Automatic annotation (TrEMBL):
Its EC number is 2.4.-.-. GO terms for cellular component: plasma membrane. The keyword Transmembrane helix applies. Pfam families: Glycos_transf_2. This is Glycosyltransferase. It is an enzyme of class 2 (transferase).
Length: 321
């Protein structure tokens, strides 16, 4: 009987670690140093999948050097450009083989030392384990913004994740299979995982400041990501737009009625031009906002129907390839 390629040499590991990397040259050596002892301590078979998301700072070379030292456990996927953190994770999921798949950031803001706690929660029978940051160490503006955004997002998506921004999470093989089936061109992995999960849980983890390198998310990218999240998991923004239109129309009708009566009783009025302009500008603002929301959905539909590849892998560095 023929063995399937690589089966004998490389049995499926119990744990797959998926780590997206975009220009993390400064952090990687520290990550390698802290990650391995934690995984060895766990005493389970594991693989580490790094996805190089089009880094231009030499991160790939560091990853490959690390792989040379640990050929049996480390695999590297090289992207043909920058496709974003969530696409990198998606690609990692596709290549992962573990019974438990854990995602984490490369910048050590999620301490690798928390991995055993995630694994313990998975062993307790949960199919996704999320995390939320306590004592979060980020710039003040980021903390406030993410508090507000977490609140709004939960309202809109109904997913009830405590901390959308925390990527240290574990998923069971079943959930990964379902995520792999959903080939959406913009996505938000933790939300997708939660969507499919039947017994989710969340644990508290500590959080540290980014010590090496800088955040890869500027304000604009962060806002884009949140639109992905909200439009990808809910139609409520569209419904809000409709309701808003209804409200404004009703108010205008009342106003027209009032003006009609006033004209009959008091006579025509000509003052208050600026008030009128003000009201007009406000309504124009609302209209533009609403068109924008509708546009967000249309843009995403357009992306879906074009069916371009969501990411392009240049090369996979693993023994089976
Ligand atoms: N990342 C990525 N592609 C991107 C942006 C980020 O793969 O386009 C990776 C990055 O290398 C890191 C993780 O995603 O491992 C989280 O990024 P970052 O720490 O910059 O985000 P923040 O913690 O500031 O939200
Ligand atoms: Mg970070």
């Amino acid at each position: 009987m023929l063995l399937q390629a690589g089966q004998e040499r490389n049995p499926k590991p119990e744990i797959s670690l998926v780590i997206p990397v975009y220009n993390e040259r400064e952090s990687l050596p520290f990550l390698f140093e802290r990650l391995l002892p934690v995984l060895e301590e766990l005493g389970r078979s594991y693989e580490i999948l790094f996805i190089d998301d089009g880094s231009v700072d030499g991160s790939l070379a560091l990853l490959l050097a690390f792989r040379e030292e640990h050929r049996s456990t480390v695999r590297v996927i090289e992207f043909n450009g920058n496709f974003g953190q969530h696409m990198a994770i998606t690609a990692g999921f596709r290549c992962s083989r573990g019974r438990i798949v854990i995602t984490m950031d490369a910048d050590l803001q999620n301490p690798p030392e928390e991995i055993p706690n995630l694994v313990a929660a998975m062993d307790a029978g949960h199919d996704t384990v999320g995390t939320y940051r306590v004592g979060r160490r980020d710039p003040f503006f980021r903390k406030i913004a993410s508090k507000v955004i977490n609140g709004i997002t939960n309202r809109i998506t109904g997913l009830n994740l405590r901390d959308y921004g925390c990527m240290l999470r574990a998923y069971s093989g079943n959930i990964i299979a379902l995520i792999n089936e959903s080939a959406e061109s913009t996505t938000f992995i933790p939300a997708l995982g939660r969507k499919f999960s039947v017994s989710p849980t969340e644990i508290a983890i500590s959080h540290t400041e980014r010590e090496h390198g800088t955040s890869k998310y500027g304000l604009f990218k962060l806002i884009r990501l949140n639109f992905d999240l909200m439009t990808g998991f809910s139609l409520i923004p569209l419904q809000v737009v409709t309701m808003l239109g209804l409200l404004v129309a009703t108010l205008s009708l009342l106003f027209v009625a009032y003006l009609g009566v006033r004209r009959l009783v008091v006579g025509p009025e000509a003052e208050g031009v600026f008030t009128l302009m003000n009201v007009n500008f406000f309504l124009m603002g609302i209209t533009m906002f609403c068109v924008g929301i509708v546009g967000e959905y249309i843009g995403r539909i357009y992306q879906e129907v074009r069916r371009r590849p969501r990411f392009v892998i240049r090369k996979v560095y693993d023994d089976e390839a």
